[in-house]
């Protein structure tokens, strides 16, 4: 994978609803290889995942702001069994909890050798286009730091 979107011809795994009004701006940005998060327009609380109302002040207004797709690996798990048959060919795979430099935490699939994962390691997002509508953000150890 590269830092820019890469398209794959077939994707049999579950896909998100990119038209859901709550998350559509996120999916539109990932298609452009950008990471955006919603910020409350009343109290400036940075949300992830997006919610209909701000968990801090209950305000419904939000604005989407772009942030660098960088952070630290806060935790991770390596899966040796597929809970859904669509993921059987991927076993073993790692899912990480990334503490973004922006201050929120985000789950995502980790790329690269699972044996090399270490809590606290710097990570960067890479964008994986699975079709023309859906681009996932994945995470990999950032050896440039």
Describe what this molecule looks like in 3D.
The chain is built from 1 helix and 7 strands; from the N terminus they run αβββββββ. It has one helix at 24-31; strands at 35-40, 62-67, 70-79, 93-100, 105-110, 122-129, 135-141. The strands form 2 sheets. The protein has a 5-stranded antiparallel sheet. Strands 1-2 form a two-stranded antiparallel ribbon. The radius of gyration is 16 Å and the shape is globular. Residues 1-9 have low confidence and may be disordered.
Element layout with pairings:
Layout: H1 24-31, E1 35-40, E2 62-67, E3 70-79, E4 93-100, E5 105-110, E6 122-129, E7 135-141
Antiparallel strand pairs: 1-2, 3-4, 3-6, 4-5, 6-7
What key attributes describe this structure?
145 residues; mainly beta; five-stranded antiparallel β-sheet; two-stranded antiparallel sheet; 7 strands; 6% helix; disordered N terminus
How many β strands by DSSP?
7
How far apart the termini lie comes to 19 Å
Instruction: Provide mean pLDDT, rounded.
Output: 92
Helix/strand/pairing class, anyone?
A: mainly beta
Low-pLDDT segments: 1-9
Shape: globular
Helix proportion = under 10%
What integer value in Å does the Rg equal?
16 Å
Helix tally? 1
The sequence of SSEs as H and E is HEEEEEEE
Q: Write out the strand line-up for the largest beta sheet, numbering strands in chain order.
A: 5-4-3-6-7
- Main sheet specs: 5 strands, antiparallel
**Strand residue content:** 35-45%
Oligomer: single chain
């Amino acid at each position: 994978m590269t830092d820019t979107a890469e398209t794959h011809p077939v994707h049999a795994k579950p896909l998100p609803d990119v038209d859901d009004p709550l998350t559509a701006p996120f999916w539109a940005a990932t298609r452009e290889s950008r990471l955006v998060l919603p910020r409350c327009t009343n109290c400036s609380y940075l949300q992830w995942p997006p919610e209909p109302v701000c968990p801090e002040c209950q305000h419904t207004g939000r604005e989407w702001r772009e942030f660098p797709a960088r952070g630290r690996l806060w935790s991770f798990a390596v899966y040796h069994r597929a809970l859904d048959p669509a993921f059987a060919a991927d076993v073993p795979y790692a899912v990480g909890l990334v503490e973004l430099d922006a201050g929120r935490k985000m789950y995502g699939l980790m790329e690269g050798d699972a044996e090399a994962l270490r809590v606290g390691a710097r990570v960067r997002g890479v964008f994986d286009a699975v079709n023309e509508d859906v681009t996932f953000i994945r995470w990999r150890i950032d050896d440039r730091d």
